[in-house]
Amino acid sequence: MNLGQKTLLVVSLTVAGVMIVLYAVSRDVLLRSYLALEQEQTRSAVSRTEAALNDQLTALARTTNDYGAWDRTYAFMQHPSRGYIKQEFENDTLEGLHINSVMLANTAQKIVFFKAYDSVAKAQVGVPVEIQRSVATDFRARQAAATSTPAHGILLLPQGPVLIAACPILTSARLGPVRGVLVMTRNLDPSLVEGLKERALLSVAVDLASSPSLPADVRGALQALESSGEKIHVQSLNQISVAGYSILRDIHGRTALLLRVEMPRSVFQRGLTSLRYLLLTLCIASVVFGLTTLLLLQRIVLARLTYLTAEVGRIGSGKSGDLSERILERGSDEIGRLGRDINRMLEALQKNAGLERLNEALRQEIEERQLAENARNQMAVELLQSQKLKAIGALAAGVAHEINTPIQFVGDNTRFLHDAFADLAKLLEQYELLYQQIRDGAGKPALDSMDEARERVDLEFLRAEIPAALDQTLDGIGRVATIVRALKSFSHVDAGAQKKAADLNSALESTIVVVRNELKYVADVETAFGNLPQVTCYLGDLNQVFLNLMLNAAHSIGDVVEGTDKKGCIRVETHLDSTPDGDWAEVLISDTGTGIPEGVRERIFEPFFTTKPVGKGTGQGLALARSVVVEKHGGALTFDTEMGRGTTFHVRIPVNGIVVPASGSAAGQTMGFGPASAATV
Ligand SMILES: Nc1ncnc2c1ncn2[C@@H]1O[C@H](COP(=O)(O)OP(=O)(O)OP(=O)(O)O)[C@@H](O)[C@H]1O
Ligand SMILES: [Mg+2]
Questions:
Q1: Whose CA is nearest to atom 8 of ligand 1?
Q2: Which of 39, 104, 135, 250 is in Cβ range 3.0-4.6 Å of 256 for a Cys bridge?
Q3: Is the pLDDT at 134 greater than 50, yes or no?
Q4: Using one digit for the tens of pLDDT, what is the confidence trace for 523-579?
Q5: pLDDT of residue 288
Q6: Residue 177: is the preceding peptide bond cis (ω within 30°)?
């Protein structure tokens, strides 16, 4: 269910709920007030009807009083006469006065005159004596007689209810003594009820309270009135009629009759109609409100939210793929703020993406550099390898050359000795022969051939040359042995990874022998070895250092003496330097070469830095030397140089082989290989 549908549902439910509650409340309030109004109206109708009945009763009482307090009646009671009766109580008179019976009784309660008139039949009727007596003895009538106070009310007689009024018989001036009581009745018959109806313009009914055939509603109302004690009871009969009831008490205050006034429920009907209008109005208002709310929600909220969702989805799904896009911010309300927040978020994302790209680029660059570094290292290893091979090749060639000279003259001498020995052997044969012939006594011819042989062999020459040849051969063999020993000591000393005590002087000698062929054409080598103790070191590595320094010296001198028949000088010096930090073996290799130009002094220890043409130098000699001396031995490698005079490299190695950490000492200062360590002489 999307937001629009949910909103529709919520708004519809809310509107329906509000409508139902409103209708229920209004219906309750309205109907209650209409019902109250209806009750009020009904009560007032009942009161009006009661008043109308009372009016009738009052009229009867007034008539009774008029007759009772009248001199003629007063006189009649003393002297009854027919004339008075005839004049005053004729049928027409009674009809006109709405009187149905007249009774005059004296103070002894003896009925003096009684007349009953049937207003329907319009004729005098007889009334049973018991009834006359009961009227006469009625206590109110008696009371009227006794107290001179008129009384009136309703009286239930066997033939039906009547309105009754009684008054004492007095003079017209209302003076006594009382001569009896005048009682007049009026039947409470349908005609009277009809009169009430006409006055009240309503449906009026009077029922005997004691009647067994009372209608159900009347009986219920009677019970309600008696139990509640209220004067008027109202109850609706159906949707169109309502009835009001009140008890009519008789002259004794007893429940006698029940007055029932029925009226149409016009007020209630109007209320219902109003309710229907209200319902209709509510429905229309709800629909209008609901639609307006929906429309406004759609315009103010939903449409904007839909736009935001679509935009965020479009940018986020990567369809546009462009985080630099922004959402249109509309309004300053929450949705507008949401739009701005989304834009801020996009901005942050964009920055992040930029950073991410930067990171990626950096990663790639690092990888590339790593690869380049690896390639460079690989190249360095390969170069080192090739340099080693080249150096070995050069050394081998030099050594071969060195060995070649003595071997050559050893060979020449050996061949000479071989030939000389053949000659000598022949001479020896002649001597043997001479010896035999002398023994046999035939010496002269033998001596002659002997002289001939000696001449042929040139014995003097052989006697002089053979010892010289043998000496030279021995010298040659000694030189070859020296070279082989030097080669052996140069090449086998670094077997093993441990530092070992070594004699640096003899190591330098061996190195000089090994590189002699490289040096001898450009320089003479001078050595000045001091007394050095055994130095704990990696001798093979140090030999490499010395070799490189000597080769550099030879190359530098070569640059100076090239094209001339002059030679330079390479001087190798050693001495012991005792300092508070310990003993140091110092090796100085000086040359009379070009000197190192100022511009390159700072860089000569950098790996691959060379000023030599391709094929002659790889720029690794001094880098390697620095690494061996400084890092592996904790020593120092420095140089003094002067252009046109030459260069001296100083190698300092701790005698005991312990790597001393750099400090303010001499060792620390000379360990460097940068500009600070380069000193110009
Ligand atoms: N004794 C020296 N006299 C003059 N310049 C020197 C001397 N020793 C070294 N240099 C300079 O220092 C540079 C670096 O020397 P290094 O031994 O490291 O490399 P290389 O001799 O050029 O090549 P490689 O030793 O690898 O064959 C040389 O090219 C040279 O310019
Ligand atoms: Mg070199």
A1: 552
A2: 250
A3: yes
A4: 999 999 999 999 999 888 899 899 999 999 999 999 999 999 999 999 999 999 999
A5: 87
A6: yes
- The confidence score (pLDDT) of residue 452 equals 80
Q: Are strands 203-208 and 636-642 parallel, antiparallel or unpaired?
A: unpaired
**Model confidence pLDDT, tens digit, residues 258-295:** 999 998 888 888 888 888 888 888 888 888 888 888 88
pLDDT at res. 320? 56
Q: How far is CA 322 from CA 319, 346, 358, 393, in A?
A: 8, 10, 17, 64
Binning pLDDT at 50, 70 and 90, where does residue 360 land? very high
CB atoms within 10 A of CB 378: 10
Is pLDDT of 116 > 90? no
| Nearest atom in ligand 1 to 593's CA | 3
CA 618 to ligand 1 center in whole angstroms: 9
The H-assigned helical ranges of 441-458 are 443-457
For residues 397 and 262, what is the distance between their CA atoms, to the nearest angstrom? 152
Sign, CA torsion 661/663/668/672: positive
The residue whose CA has the least distance to atom 24 of ligand 1 is 617
Residues 477, 414: Cα–Cα separation, whole Å:
12
Ligand closest in space to the Cα of 626:
1
The strand pairing partners of 568, in sequence order, are 523
pLDDT of residue 503: 94
Q: Are 11 and 297 in contact (CB under 8 A)?
A: yes
With a 6 A CB cut-off, is 594 part of the ligand 1 pocket?
yes
Ligand closest to 625 (CA) is 1
* Token digits of residue 347: 């901005």
| Segment 513-526 mean pLDDT | 90
pTM beyond cutoff 0.70: no
Q: Give the DSSP letter string of 201-212.
A: TSEEEEEETT-T
Rg (CA), the chain: 80
Tell whether ligand 1 has an atom less than 6 A from the beta carbon of residue 635: no
How many whole angstroms separate alpha carbon 122 and alpha carbon 120? 5
The residue assigned the tokens 């071997």 is 407
Give the separation between CA 196 and CA 47, rounded to whole angstroms.
12
- The residue whose CA is least distant from atom 7 of ligand 1 is 552
pLDDT at residue 666, as a whole number: 36
Nearest to 420 by CA among 451, 452, 456: 456
Question: Ligand 1: which atom is nearest the Cα of residue 619?
Answer: 19
The ligand 1 atom at the shortest distance from the C-alpha of residue 649 is 1
Give mean pLDDT, residues 640-651. 96
**DSSP code at position 121:** T
Secondary element (H or E) of residue 269 = helix 266-297
Give 29-36's long-range contacts (Cβ < 8 A, gap of 24+). 30/271, 30/274, 30/275, 30/278, 31/268, 31/271, 31/272, 31/275, 33/271, 34/267, 34/268, 34/270, 34/271, 34/274, 35/268, 35/271
401: which 2 tokens?
């050359």
CA–centroid distance, 584 to ligand 1, in Å, is: 25
- Name residue 575's beta-bridge partners: 586
What is the mean pLDDT of the segment spanning 452-460?
Answer: 79
Sheet holding 678-680, edge to edge: 523-529, 568-579, 582-591, 646-654, 636-642, 678-680
- Rounded CA separation 655/664 (Å): 19
Judge contact between 638 and 667, C-beta under 8 A: no
Which residues contact residue 564 at a Cβ distance below 8 angstroms, ignoring those fewer than 6 apart?
none
**Which ligand lies nearest to the CA atom of residue 599 in the structure?**
1
Q: Which residues contact 364 (CB under 8 A, 6 or more apart)?
A: none
Distance from residue 536's CA to the centre of ligand 2 (Å) = 25
CA distance 357 to 360: 5
99 touches 62 (CB < 8 A) = no
Q: Is the pLDDT of residue 675 over 60?
A: no
For the chain, list the domains and their CATH numbers.
1-39+266-321 (no CATH), 69-201 (3.30.450.20), 209-264 (no CATH), 334-480 (no CATH), 494-680 (3.30.565.10)
